[in-house]
């Protein structure tokens, strides 16, 4: 990354954690500021939404000494900022991937597709938990299937690794839960956000592709013995209710 | 995941382990492993050629074909009369877009043509609107658009953000910038094709026998998908930038003579804001060398 990350050093009286997800990478001098959340902390000088210019002011007046750090030494691109003698903050600088994931999340919350939910884990925007509900009027009806999505800093140029945590029985899902779906592999494109990924997986449930079987037993049953296949799917649906 | 990666590496080293366990490894060889392996191959390729290479004398091209077809050697001689240098792009399926990117940005930097920046920006905004109309969520493309526009602005000298030619080369080799610009062009190309479905449909049917939308999803929007005349036409039209493609292949004329063919992709005139201006403006300043399966940048003498 051609961006710079700074860490300030100061005697620390009080540690607080401030997570700012959307200070974009210092991509050649431009920063945008979208949203931040405070943990156990109220700061008189920061409202609930702060435009960047005043944040900039805050940075320059508050940082006492600034040391450039190699980005790789800052996992998650944290920045320590000290404010006078009273506050020291940990700011999460966001990379393009993190910034994008926040927007994916916002969109998923504001406009959730039917039968899908997903959210990043508490302290890790790169790891998401998701649930796909089996589509109505299909053998999958009523199932609640859990997945994880692991993103890298290459997102959205590279797809996340998506896995079912719940046990599955499906022609295109491997025993370890990984999914054989073209848009998660060679047909990946940044046009897909998390909502689109989950929607595609949801439609894969009822519309398997028997030509690229990941579970040969399921693939065979799907084309040769639909009744038995549907029975196995119902079993998986019932298991999804009891599994942790 | 960790152990799986390790087993892939073992598999590559050879059948050191017993046949049985090797079988197990292959049954466990899932899509993730294939992707992983693909990334590894890409990384190895990356070590050999940067996204955008250095400018090389055209003689380096001749050296490549030393013992090659006499037709090719003859053609390279002809190329040598008109063109001074070549700049190679990595053969990662993005070479057309990458060559176009560098060639265009370099042209703006050398010409310091603010009017061209303003003109292309207006077309970029049209593409943005087209994507929105097509139903693409802003969040999926806005970063790519923003980054491209940012790069454009840096090319005009005398500003705080101005960059040198050296920096331009570095940025073209920096994945976090270069891939974003390539993806930006893919978005623009896809929007143009889908916006003019009736025009592009026959060409696309000839290429892949799929619907226009499916073609964009599978052959335009994913990184690493190679470009064809459909992509070039669409990008040239969308941005209003003419492109010359010089063909270097083993074909020869019936008369036995050897000549170099080129094709100029000229943007649809109606879409050009300054179409009424002198036609001189429409002589392509971007020249790409096409050899079957690959594009590089050519520099005229």
TrEMBL record, chain A:
Keyword Acyltransferase: no
Organism of origin: Psophocarpus tetragonolobus (Winged bean)
Active-site positions on this chain: 180 (glycyl thioester intermediate)
Gene Ontology biological-process annotations: ubiquitin-dependent protein catabolic process
Start and end residues of each UBC core domain: 96-242
SUPFAM superfamilies: UBC-like
One GO MF term: ATP binding
Family in the record: Belongs to the ubiquitin-conjugating enzyme family.
EC number of the protein: 2.3.2.23
Protein's UniProt keywords contain Ribosomal protein: no
Entry function: Accepts the ubiquitin from the E1 complex and catalyzes its covalent attachment to other proteins.
Keywords (A to Z) from UniProt: ATP-binding, Nucleotide-binding, Transferase, Ubl conjugation pathway
InterPro entries membership: Ub_conjugating_enzyme, UBC, UBQ-conjugating_AS, UBQ-conjugating_enzyme/RWD
UniProt-listed PROSITE patterns: UBC_1, UBC_2
Protein name as catalogued: E2 ubiquitin-conjugating enzyme
Automatic annotation (TrEMBL), chain B:
InterPro entries: OTU_dom, Otubain, Papain-like_cys_pep_sf, Peptidase_C65_otubain, Peptidase_C65_otubain_sub1, Peptidase_C65_otubain_sub2
Family indicated by similarity: Belongs to the peptidase C65 family.
Organism per entry: Psophocarpus tetragonolobus
Lineage: Eukaryota, Viridiplantae, Streptophyta, Embryophyta, Tracheophyta
Entry keyword set: Hydrolase, Protease, Thiol protease, Ubl conjugation pathway
Enzyme Commission number(s) of this protein: 3.4.19.12
Any GO MF annotation of the entry: ubiquitin binding
Domain OTU: 84-301
Cellular component, GO annotation: nucleus
PROSITE patterns: OTU (PS50802)
Region annotated Disordered, chain positions: 1-26
Top-rank lineage group of the source organism: Eukaryota
Known catalytic reactions: Thiol-dependent hydrolysis of ester, thioester, amide, peptide and isopeptide bonds formed by the C-terminal Gly of ubiquitin (a 76-residue protein attached to proteins as an intracellular targeting signal)
Enzyme class: hydrolase
UniProt-recorded name of the protein: Ubiquitin thioesterase
SUPFAM superfamilies: Cysteine proteinases
One biological process term in Gene Ontology: protein K48-linked deubiquitination
Site (Interacts with free ubiquitin) location in chain: 247, 249, 290, 295
